[in-house]
Input
Amino acid sequence: MTRTNATDKNEGDVTRLRDEWLVRLQELTANVKAWAEQLDWSTRGISKNMNDSRLGRYVAPALIMQKDATRVLLDPVSRFAPGTDGIVDLYLMPGYDDIATLYLAGGGWRVHHVTSGEGRMTAGNLAQRALTKETLAQLLDEIAAHAPEPL
Output
């Protein structure tokens, strides 16, 4: 009779959680890539080395999007955070300015984006919105319209 010790069980749980997280990230990057390309943004998938205190070391998918001189990085952050099942950030490159955070909650990705100014998106109108092609379009338009001019 084979016995499973606690270490084996924990390793199996970690592997399952990591695999589920990677599937969610692959689905997210595939959807965002398709939507961005439909919105005339060029895209390039990249890999990010992760070292999570609970999941260990692994390689996660990330995505670079560019339109004209505006470049944005879809960057996985963590599978574990209070009140969410995962976090991915959107950064304006090259300064890595945090422009939006995607939260995995209730089985879907939600957008939180904070800006200020007339005609711009605010936390109030995007914090509870699901990530869709339309939400991404609005977010990318906002980013492109207010990105600093290249030197």
